[in-house]
Amino acid sequence: MSPGDLAALVLTLKLAGIVTALLLLMGTPLAWWLAHTRCRFRPVVEALVALPIVLPPSVLGFYLLVAMGPHGPIGALTQALGLGTLPFTFAGLVLASVFYSLPFVVQPIQQAFAAIPSGLMEAASTLRAGPWDRFRSVALPLAAPGFLTAGILGFAHTLGEFGVVLMVGGNIEGETRVVSVQIYDHVEALEYGAAHGLSLTLLVLSFSILLVLYARRQPWRL
Prior knowledge:
It is a single chain. This protein is mainly α. The chain has one domain (3-35, 56-215): MetI-like fold. Helix content is 77%, strand content 0%. The protein is built from eleven helices and no strands. It has helices at 3-36, 42-54, 57-68, 73-80, 90-114, 118-126, 131-142, 144-159, 163-169, 179-188, 192-215. The longest helix is centred in the N-terminal third of the chain and has 34 residues, at 3-36.
């Protein structure tokens, strides 16, 4: 593996780790609200969360690029804060990846919260446990499998990004050139051996991550 390939792999793992951590922090309250709210706008929010699953990555990447540009709402905010604009930076890559992987984290956690029997939360309430205590002591432990699934899916999905990261991050070595973009560069340069080696590395890594997810669901039998 060349130094460029190794740098792209490290950058991709760094991106996936940061995005997964952010999504678990941000997605948990959203998942809790979706699992328990009776608001009539819930279907709208759920549709927005699930939109990256069906929307072409190039379309999502284009609108994120416009939003983060100098004349977009996110770009105007970051410029007002003295942060400049986010396109073609690692920070912009993180923000775009958060949007792109959002449903893969929020939905498993939402399903885990929704599956918790309401009687358990009511029983904790009768024992004078406050909302935070009920959430921390009852909801979180029972929803732990959902969090594990969300973390694994969010991480694995971020590893394989291409359209969104290329649109928002471009192809800057050491800054935004992730593994998928590096593979694309190898193919364009007819360096099929290098593309195969890097593709195989990503394939084995992604398969291993998903294997952990599905193996824990399967009861072992002799």
